């Protein structure tokens, strides 16, 4: 019989649970919240291993939400006293957020600060980051928070870091495409990734800054120029597309949200975002009209937010949630969990394009496998959409590669 131990700790009305099973050696880190629609499970994911690599957001339900007044330390102490087998949460990973004072950076840093797997949280920005770090550092969760600002402090921010998340850069305003951000963000990403290459070349690198379809290839070229490119550890963060697809499908089909998982492939802009609705778990049927409406809504969801914010930026809170989920999945993989699946824009041989978003299996060394089965048995609609996205995605990738190499020649 599998021996299972668990511990739970709380932060306000939110409780964390960690579980480990001696049989499966798998651990799930979950966040429970006792308010209906708010943050439910930022790790999002106890991925369920199966032959077809199905990934499932399992949460909660029956895990107890601890009382408001109990702090993390009290709770952990109680656990250890009451159960000799209590699982001691081991916070051991260092995470850096570059662009930490921004619209995404702040809530993302808060969510990462809540992770029981993080020992050190390094916040870097060119402005206003000291206040953000001082503020966050008062939360009684395990990680130590440090602020770094300006180019002179970037190297120290990055030394010894396991996961670097990059949301630095400008967001869209109404009427702009993500590609309109290229001229500013390409240079920002290039400079930051150079520093990553010099100071923590073995880290997982999560690129959020848009246009992701170009900034990831830029990062790859920079890492190659520095002789430290490891394609298994460079990720374009497309988790928000999956989060949106899951939400919109659950709403449309009146499904239990936690059960829904829609793989989203391609890239992260307009028609390059391709939700594979035929691969939705649980299996569900859609009319042609529903497929068209859902696909377009998922593709335009970023623009929906940009327009609603009317000049005040783009998605920040949902993005922070999505990025925190990807960070937590990466940390679980680094921690040895063997059942971690996410969609991400990575170097890929799934299609003729050098980078492509698809489901991947994450392990200690980064991308352990690119899940090819999702591209088999596509519907005619999906096949056509896949062919249609390729030329735009190819152009965006080439634009990034050309930029990085031109800059290298002129440097
Ligand atoms: N991948 C996705 O799904 C996704 C989703 C939403 C937004 N984004 C992108 O994320 C980026 C950030 O969005 P935001 O809303 O947080 O913008 P923001 O303007 O609110 O924050 C950006 C932060 O980056 C900082 N910054 C600028 N240059 C920097 C540098 N050289 N080094 C360090 N920090 C620097 C700024 O000071 C600011 O604090 C945008 O490019 C946006 O398009 C991506
Ligand atoms: O739409 C944007 O510009 C931001 C982001 O890429 C998103 O999808 O929300």
TrEMBL record:
GO cellular component, one term: mitochondrion
EC number(s) stated in the UniProt entry for this protein: 1.1.1.37
Domain Lactate/malate dehydrogenase N-terminal: start-end pairs: 94-236
UniProt-recorded Gene Ontology molecular function terms: L-malate dehydrogenase (NAD+) activity
Pfam family, one: Ldh_1_C
Source taxon at top rank: Eukaryota
InterPro entries reported in the protein's UniProt record: Lactate/malate_DH_C (IPR022383), Lactate/malate_DH_N (IPR001236), Lactate_DH/Glyco_Ohase_4_C (IPR015955), Malate_DH_AS (IPR001252), Malate_DH_type1 (IPR010097), NAD(P)-bd_dom_sf (IPR036291)
Ranges of residues in domain Lactate/malate dehydrogenase C-terminal: 238-403
An annotated GO BP: malate metabolic process
Catalytic reaction list: (S)-malate + NAD(+) = oxaloacetate + NADH + H(+)
Record bears the keyword Repeat: no
Record keywords: NAD, Oxidoreductase, Tricarboxylic acid cycle
Residues in the signal sequence: none
Sequence similarity: Belongs to the LDH/MDH superfamily. MDH type 1 family.
Subunit structure: Homodimer.
NCBIfam families: MDH_euk_gproteo
Protein name: malate dehydrogenase
């Amino acid at each position: 019989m599998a021996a299972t131990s668990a511990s739970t700790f709380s932060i306000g009305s939110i409780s964390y649970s960690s579980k480990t099973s001696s049989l499966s050696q798998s651990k799930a880190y979950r966040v429970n919240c006792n308010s209906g629609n708010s943050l439910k499970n930022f790790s999002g994911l106890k991925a369920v291993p199966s032959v077809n690599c199905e990934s499932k957001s399992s949460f909660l339900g029956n895990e107890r939400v601890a009382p408001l007044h109990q702090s993390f330390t009290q709770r952990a102490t109680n656990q250890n006293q009451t159960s000799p087998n209590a699982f001691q949460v081991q916070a051991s990973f260092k995470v850096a957020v570059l662009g930490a004072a921004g619209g995404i950076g702040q809530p993302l840093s808060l969510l990462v600060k809540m992770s029981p797997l993080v020992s050190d949280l390094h916040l870097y920005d060119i402005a206003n980051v000291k206040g953000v770090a001082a503020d966050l550092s008062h939360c009684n969760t395990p990680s130590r928070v440090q602020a770094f600002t300006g180019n002179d402090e970037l190297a120290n921010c990055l030394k010894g870091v396991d996961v670097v998340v990059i949301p630095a850069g400008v967001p869209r305003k109404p009427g702009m495409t993500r590609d309109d951000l290229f001229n500013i963000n390409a240079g920002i990403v290039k400079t930051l990734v150079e520093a990553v290459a010099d100071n923590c070349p073995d880290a997982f690198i999560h690129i959020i800054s848009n246009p992701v379809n170009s900034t990831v290839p830029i990062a790859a070229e920079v890492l190659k120029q520095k002789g430290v490119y490891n394609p298994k550890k460079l990720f374009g963060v497309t988790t928000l597309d999956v989060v949106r697809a899951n939400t919109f499908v659950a709403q449309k089909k009146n499904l239990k949200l936690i059960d829904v998982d829609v793989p989203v492939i391609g890239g992260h802009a307009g028609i390059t975002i391709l939700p594979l609705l035929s691969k939705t778990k649980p299996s569900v049927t859609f009319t042609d009209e529903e497929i068209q409406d859902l696909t377009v809504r998922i593709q335009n969801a970023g623009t929906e937010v940009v327009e609603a914010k009317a000049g005040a930026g783009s998605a920040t809170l949902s993005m922070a949630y999505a990025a925190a989920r990807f960070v937590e999945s990466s940390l679980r993989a680094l921690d040895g969990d063997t059942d971690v699946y996410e969609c991400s824009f990575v170097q890929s041989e799934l299609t003729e394009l050098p980078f492509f978003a698809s489901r991947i299996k994450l392990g200690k060394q980064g991308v352990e496998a690119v899940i090819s089965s999702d591209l088999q048995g596509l519907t005619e609609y999906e096949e056509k959409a896949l062919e249609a996205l390729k030329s735009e995605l190819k152009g965006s990738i080439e634009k990034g590669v050309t930029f990085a190499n031109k800059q290298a020649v002129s440097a």
